[in-house]
Amino acid sequence: MAIERIGVVGAGMMGAEIAYIFALSGASVKLSDASVEALARARARHEALLTKAVEKGAIDRDGADDVLMRLEGTTDLADFADRDMVIEAVFEDQEVKGGIFKRLDDILPADCLIASNTSSISISVLASYLSEARRPNFMGLHFFSPVSRMKLVEAISAFETDPAALKRAQDACEAAGKVAIPVKDVVGFAVNRLLMAFFIEANKLVEEGVATPEDIDTACRLGLGHPVGPFKLLDEVSNPLALQVMDILHDAYGERFHPPLLMKQMVHSGRHGRKAGRGWYDYRGGA
């Protein structure tokens, strides 16, 4: 059964771009947020992405207008009562996410797929916030930022996820141009465990005076073929979010994911990354 009506909860950068890629693929998408301002920013992001796509010749202006028509913002989760699949993409906090799932439980159609875009919280734990009848249709769909460019999605089953439901969700992601790989439900899944270990070791190299953040970024680009180095990437994803994920992994796996002191200092001193104007690099001049 095709998934044609999609809901996304959370109009931050992740949620806005998840909504965008599904609308681009032809789905009807409702994007929900408690903040009207967040919805307005998401709309501006959609318009900017489509403008770039038109300039590159990837879509014509009429096609771009059609995509915008398929994107609808709402502050009321009750508007999701007709959705085929809903993806939660809010702040990385178990109780916040759990509260949303409890509300959705009373709203969504019985056969609606429900997914979390969590980057680190156990899918089986999040499933516990839903009624038992809904758990077979619940899974994790971990997208990567920026969603409009990154093709990977980690598709994660909870204890009770129906394999057929997971396959439907994977197919929907594939239809939106993504590659959805199955990953076991462990804290941090696959990519974030690798990525946080990478960030931690990069911090240690700076703490030990082995090299500067700028030189480590250069080394990773030219020596490892990475498109961007770890410190530029930290500034993009935000240092507070990375530290939060490190803390979650540290609780789950112990000392190998112990957050470096330097990382904590960066966050507590307000050097949060590009959006804050300053992180490992200074963006206040527009860099």
Automatic annotation (TrEMBL):
<dbReference type="InterPro" id="IPR008927">
    <property type="entry name" value="6-PGluconate_DH-like_C_sf"/>
</dbReference>
<dbReference type="InterPro" id="IPR013328">
    <property type="entry name" value="6PGD_dom2"/>
</dbReference>
<dbReference type="GO" id="GO:0016616">
    <property type="term" value="F:oxidoreductase activity, acting on the CH-OH group of donors, NAD or NADP as acceptor"/>
</dbReference>
<feature type="domain" description="3-hydroxyacyl-CoA dehydrogenase NAD binding">
    <location>
        <begin position="6"/>
        <end position="186"/>
    </location>
</feature>
<feature type="domain" description="3-hydroxyacyl-CoA dehydrogenase C-terminal">
    <location>
        <begin position="188"/>
        <end position="283"/>
    </location>
</feature>
<protein>
    <submittedName>
        <fullName>3-hydroxyacyl-CoA dehydrogenase family protein</fullName>
    </submittedName>
</protein>
<dbReference type="InterPro" id="IPR036291">
    <property type="entry name" value="NAD(P)-bd_dom_sf"/>
</dbReference>
<dbReference type="GO" id="GO:0070403">
    <property type="term" value="F:NAD+ binding"/>
</dbReference>
<dbReference type="InterPro" id="IPR022694">
    <property type="entry name" value="3-OHacyl-CoA_DH"/>
</dbReference>
<dbReference type="InterPro" id="IPR006108">
    <property type="entry name" value="3HC_DH_C"/>
</dbReference>
<dbReference type="InterPro" id="IPR006176">
    <property type="entry name" value="3-OHacyl-CoA_DH_NAD-bd"/>
</dbReference>
<dbReference type="Pfam" id="PF00725">
    <property type="entry name" value="3HCDH"/>
</dbReference>
<dbReference type="GO" id="GO:0006631">
    <property type="term" value="P:fatty acid metabolic process"/>
</dbReference>
<feature type="site" description="Important for catalytic activity">
    <location>
        <position position="142"/>
    </location>
</feature>
<comment type="similarity">
    <text>Belongs to the 3-hydroxyacyl-CoA dehydrogenase family.</text>
</comment>
<dbReference type="InterPro" id="IPR006180">
    <property type="entry name" value="3-OHacyl-CoA_DH_CS"/>
</dbReference>
<keyword id="KW-0560">Oxidoreductase</keyword>
<dbReference type="Pfam" id="PF02737">
    <property type="entry name" value="3HCDH_N"/>
</dbReference>
